[in-house]
Amino acid sequence: MGRITGLISRYGQAKSEHLLQPMLKAISLHSHWKNKKKSMGEAFFATADWSSPVIFSSQEKMILFDGSIYNKQELSMRQACHSAELFFHLFNQVGFISAVQKINGDFSIALFDAKQNELWLARDRLGVKPLYFTKAAPYFAFASQPRSLLILPETSEEVNLQFAALFAASHYRYFDNQAEYSPYRDIQQLPAAHILHYKDGTPSVKRYWSLQEQSDFEGSETVLASEYRELLKEAVMCRYGESFKPAFTLSGGLDSSSVLAFAAHCSQQKQIAISTIYDDKTYDESDEIHSMLEATVKEWIPVKVDLTDPFVLIERMINIHDEPVATATWASHFLLCEETHRRGIGSLFGGLGGDELNAGEYEHFLFFFADLKRRGNSGKLKEEIQKWALYHNHPIYEKNEQVALSAIHRLTDLLQPGKCLADRNRLERYSKALNADFFRLIDFQPIMDHLFTSYLKNRTYQDLFRETMPCCLRAEDRNTSFFELDHHLPFLDYRLVEFMFRIPGEDKIRHGVTKHLLREAMKGILPEPTRTRIKKVGWNAPAHLWFSGPNREFLLDLVHSQNFRARGIYNTKEVLRIIDEHEEIVQSQKKQENHMMFLWQMVNLELWFSSINKTSTLCVS
């Protein structure tokens, strides 16, 4: 595993290699990483890695492969063959697009064919591995992280205005609404499940895999649960077979617990588990975790997160991520990865994607309700709303029939089956904090994909490709790569994704309880207290405390600084009001939603600008 970078250049060999050297240096996150460079014709490739080789060349072709292939045996390839060489043989058999489609894996790939004088790039179906590119005559360049491309003299560090505005005052779900954007004006992302072909100075991008409307499975619950169990088991174990000294992130939730339980059950070996814990009980899941330990864990590593000065950690993460970090959850994950690396662990497994596939988020109830309403199933709708209110009512986020029906009308278009609407309340909650002359959130219209006649399925698709998943995968990739950890996310196995998009909503949510089919599939594998637990805390961090008390002074100094005001992004008066209100809510322990997410984003954005020496360099993408 490692980082990759390269360019197609008409500068000539000497100057192109002169450009490649700092690009390689930029992706070499540690001095002991193994660096390799190869050139062929107008192509110049480089890789920095900490473990297995990711570069391969023949007489006419060069390949960079960052990631893992999980179906080597199915492809009848030699097990000892590393992924870059394996892909070379596959490419020679079936061509680039078909080769990518045959792989089950997490990857970013670059292939240069000297005979055809063309470059191919590809990214895995769910976007687990990142890939960026930039085109500025006379070259085309790509890399695992923006930092390698920002080295190039023709690539500006100017920031995408829309990204800055959304990060400043909107919700993290909207940062990646346009999947091809990056935080930088001159750099694009290759979206998940896409291929880029570059020939004769022109890049073209197209999708090679997609989810499509299909009829729901009609099998019995027992049959579907059995199929789910086998698919998830295979997704876990094919990754487990590729892992080196694995450990498993463990929260109190069903997803990470299921991944761990399958690994322990199928290998017949207890595993190493690692968790973040907090003194503050708002997000601490220590009590819920304990039910997993006896049956599945040989060593539990609790990582206590107690940040008295979060700003030092935020600055450190920004320098590693090349961008502001979406949510405070990834600060906890960063510290978890640091401890995992210190323990000599090589691979980290997680449950990311389980909430999306299994309707595990609280908001998924609303889209399930909308599907019931569209089908005219009023009796079932009434029953499910009652159970939802019974099990999940909250002193701040009240749940009842009126709230549910109002949300359905606000978040769905009932005249177009399956069409979801943007949550304008969430998108514009902090619009007053944004300088109206800088950007108008009220004018921003997010792309809302409408591929299915089910509201819940479209909501899930939106989560996977435009909202929750992209920023999480990017943060996970940055954290694990810096700490030299391969990371594996079995719920994002594309076969499992395709299967779950044909599962009826009633098999995901039933009687007010989420993840119904997963719970059925895990009978006999998960401890019963874990399998049947209804309460959902959610993996988060107590950032409400990080921006209160003594740390409030840092916020005030930041907002009053000359650079902060000169950027013209924020309405300073409104930001100061939010800081004061947050302090009052936290200190008085009011039953009122605090402002930790806004403050986390504001601090990250400002420290990011400071790290790239920006005062007002912002551009419309």
Description of the molecule:
This protein has 621 residues and is α/β, with parallel strands linked by helices. The chain contains 25 helices and 19 strands. It has 4 domains: 206 residues, Glutamine Phosphoribosylpyrophosphate, subunit 1, domain 1, CATH 3.60.20; 201 residues, 3-Layer(aba) Sandwich (Rossmann fold), CATH 3.40.50.620; 102 residues, no CATH class; 77 residues, no CATH class. A 6-stranded antiparallel sheet has the order 2-3-1-9-8-11. β12 and β13 form a beta hairpin. 51% of the residues are buried. The C terminus is likely disordered.
Which descriptors would you attach to this protein?
Rossmann fold; disordered C terminus; 621 residues; Glutamine Phosphoribosylpyrophosphate, subunit 1, domain 1; 42% helix; 4 domains; six-stranded antiparallel β-sheet
Detail the topology: elements first, then pairings.
Elements: E1 2-9, H1 13-27, E2 34-40, E3 43-49, E4 55-57, E5 61-69, H2 83-94, H3 96-102, E6 105-113, E7 118-123, E8 132-136, E9 139-143, H4 146-150, E10 159-160, H5 161-169, E11 188-189, E12 194-199, E13 202-207, H6 221-242, E14 246-249, H7 254-267, E15 271-277, H8 286-296, E16 297-304, H9 310-321, H10 329-342, E17 347-349, H11 354-357, H12 364-374, H13 378-392, H14 401-411, H15 424-427, H16 455-465, H17 468-482, E18 486-488, H18 494-500, H19 516-521, H20 528-531, H21 543-546, H22 552-560, H23 562-567, H24 572-588, H25 596-611, E19 618-619
Parallel strand pairs: 10-19, 14-15, 14-17, 15-16, 17-18
Antiparallel strand pairs: 1-3, 1-9, 2-3, 4-5, 5-6, 6-7, 7-12, 8-9, 8-11, 12-13
Helix pairs in contact: 2-3, 5-25, 6-7, 6-18, 9-25, 10-17, 12-13, 12-14, 12-16, 22-24
